[in-house]
Each structure stands twice: as C-alpha cells, then as structure tokens.
Amino acid sequence: MSAAAPASGQNWFGQPRGLTILILTNMWETFSYYGMRALLVYYMTLELLIEQGMSSVIYGTYTAFAYFTPIFGGIIADRWLGKRRAVILGGSIMALGHFMMTFEPLFYIALGTIALGNGFFLPSLPSQINDLYGANDPRRPWAYNIYYVGVNIGGFLAPLICGTLGEFYGWHYGFGAAGIGMAAGLAIYVWGGKYLPVEDRTPVTLAGGKASFRDGFDRPTLMLLGGLLLAVTVFRSAYEQVGNTVALWANSGVDRAAGSFEIPMTWFQSLNPLLVILMTPFLLARWRRQAAAGTEHSPLHKMAIGALVVAGAYVLLAVVAGWQDGARASWLWLAAFFVVLTTGELYILPNGLGIFARLAPQRLGASTVASWFFATFTGSLAGGLVGSLWSVLPVPAYFALLAVIAAAAALFLRALDTPARAVFAARAALDEQEAAVAAATNDSEAIRV
C-alpha cells in the first residue's frame, strides 16, 4: 500500500484539498519567520548597537541552527511523534519564541526557542505533500512548485507588515505580528487536519517477500543526496546574503527615493517572494511545453542553470557598485537584481526540495526532507562567515566574490546530473513495480469481498 491514502476526487483548484491546507499553514509560518528575519539585522545594528561583523555572525548562526534542528526533529517525527503531532508541537514552540522576541532581555533565548520549534515543524509539513498523491498522479511533479508559490505569499507579506510595524512603530510590534502569523498557521493546520491523509507506516512488500526500497536508501541514492547537499551548501553561502549584506547595502548604498517618498528598506525583501508568485506560472507553462516537446531539462540541470543565474545577479550588483564609485545607486538596480535572483531561485530551490521528497524512503519521509534543510544550516553558517567579509572587502569585490561562489555551485550541480539521471530511472522502475503490487493486492481484496 502507499504511504498514505490519497483523497481522490476531493480537489480544490485542481489539487488535493490537503495541499491547500499545507500551503496556508506554511504560508503563515513563512510570514512569521521572514517577518522576524526582515527586522533582525536592523534590530541588532540599530537598536542593540551590535557591530556589523558580529551581527552577521549572529544572523548566520541563528539561521543555521533554525535549519539544523530539523535533523533531530525529523528523526523524532518519523520514529515517535508522527508528522501531525510534530507540526503542532513545533508550531506552538515557534509562536512562543516569536512573542518572546518582543522582550529585549529574552533576545537570545527567543532565537533559540524559534530554532527549536522549527526543528519539529519544518521537515514534517512539506514531507506530507507526497502522501497526497498516488504513485502515477500526473499532478505530483508540479506540486512542489505550486507549494513554493503559496509559501512565498507569506514571504511577500512579512516585510510589508512586520517590517513596516518594526521600522515606524517599534521593533517589538513587528516581532509581535510575526507571532500572530505563526499562531494563525497553526490554527489552520489543526482545522484542516481532516483533509490530510492518515499516516501509514506499513512497509510495501515486493515480489519474493522483500521489503520495498522505501524502507531505506540504496548507495547511489545516498551518494547523490550527499553530493546535492554539498552543492547547495556552497550555493546558499551566497544566496543567504539577501537578508544579510544585501539588506545592509539597501540601507547604505541605495537611493530609495521614489519622488518625495522614501521606500522603507525592509520593503525590498518583499520583492523576492512577490516575484516568485508572479514568475512561477510562466516558468511552469514553459516547462510543460518543453516536456510535451521532449526538451525539458533534467532536475539537476535546472538547478545548475539556477545557480548560474544567481551568479549573474551578483555580477550585476558588482558592476553597479563599481560604476557608482561610492555614490548611492538607484533602487531600480536593486529591483533588477531581485528579478534575476528570483529567476535563478525558481530553478534551484523547489526542484531540490522535490528531489529529496521524491527519493525519501516511506519510513524516513520527515528525516529525508530535514536533510534537505540541513544544507540551509551549513549554507547559513558559511553565509555568516562570508557576510563578515562585508566590512573587509570593497563592495564591488564583495559582490564579485558572491558571484564566483554561486558559479562554483552551478558547476558542481551540473557534474551531478549524469548520476542523478541513473538514480531517477531506477526509482521510476521501482515505482512502477510498487504500483503493480499495490494494484494486485487491491484486486485480491476485492475478490475476497
């Protein structure tokens, strides 16, 4: 039998109802996380008066551990709690941490509490997407891109609401709004639980009484996922600068005047999720046309293209910063940077999450998805160290360094494409075998009835 029993025939917007529940839950979680993150580096440097190098290290360390705890949270969810209870526990702890951020003496404790809650919440939510679809459901390949769009609605709203409250009315109002968002996501998940399939941990047995591949990893798959984690770690050390040193440049190196109105610095962090929402339908349509024509790139090839495009985004900033020679650049250049960056992101991040979820053994779903987020942990740690160079290097040289890092990740991802094709082909064959076994089992049960 499958990992869960998909609710066939019960759809919203052409997708299982449970996908909408998962999207809305993570949308509000993303709102809370990015709402707090939009304020964090400014809060440390402008309110707590922590010097820039140290604030970058704190920022990188917090982001890293927020994505390190999911490793343990995923294991606990798979072995003991189950995904549903892990999401509820993690969401409750995160909401508490966000409300603690409104009290300055609890700053470091609050960061640790949010990171702890994220460990239970983060791997257990997206790992439920695969359970909504049958093995041969044609909608499954696009589910993670649709999910990514929905989640980014929260990322778009976060800087506009939390950022505006924090900048104009007080930092703690922004942090409080983030806590309310987390509580809203948790309420939606509890209410919508009836639309999510019940977890089924019974292993599938193939011909000859052997356990299905879904009970563990084979060596080629394990090697592929390990290589992918290394490549994405390199990529994220550059990508994570969007909320760190790029945000600092938006404050110190960008002319944010639009007529008589000065654009708040946190608003620029809404550009990335807004562009995700606007651009994804066009990219999906393009990929569908390519798939129909037999010219669609493989997932690893797409990811390599994405990393190279992100490198191009940082080249743009390096050129603009050098051309301005210390003067403030127009905010339109920063907007152009986000357009290029987001294009690359859509090629790499949803595809990476989809690969890990697709290759996850049945009994290790949350743990495998957690390992994808482990790359965010290692990449954020590296990003904190790279961010500390902001005060050392000239701005054009610093952005050029980020471009080199992203380009190196692109080469690494491209090198993984050939072994990845072999793993996907083997997995597709096993999927077909499992589907045949499940169909035969259902037929036998129907005959007995």
TrEMBL record:
InterPro entries (UniProt xref): Dipep/tripep_permease (IPR005279), MFS_trans_sf (IPR036259), MFS_Transporters (IPR050171), POT_fam (IPR000109), PTR2_symporter_CS (IPR018456)
Keyword Coiled coil on entry: no
CDD domains: MFS_DtpA_like (cd17346)
Membrane topology: Multi-pass membrane protein
An annotated GO cellular component: plasma membrane
Short name of any one Pfam family annotated for the protein: PTR2
Gene Ontology terms for molecular function: peptide transmembrane transporter activity
Cellular location(s): Cell membrane; Membrane
Highest taxon, organism lineage: Bacteria
GO biological process, any: oligopeptide transport
Parts of the chain that traverse the membrane: 21-45, 57-77, 107-125, 146-166, 172-191, 222-239, 267-285, 305-324, 330-349, 369-391, 397-416
UniProt KW keywords: Cell membrane, Membrane, Peptide transport, Plasmid, Protein transport, Transmembrane, Transmembrane helix, Transport
Family affiliation: Belongs to the major facilitator superfamily. Proton-dependent oligopeptide transporter (POT/PTR) (TC 2.A.17) family.
Name recorded for this polypeptide: MFS transporter
Species, as recorded: Croceicoccus marinus
Organismal lineage: Bacteria, Pseudomonadati, Pseudomonadota, Alphaproteobacteria, Sphingomonadales
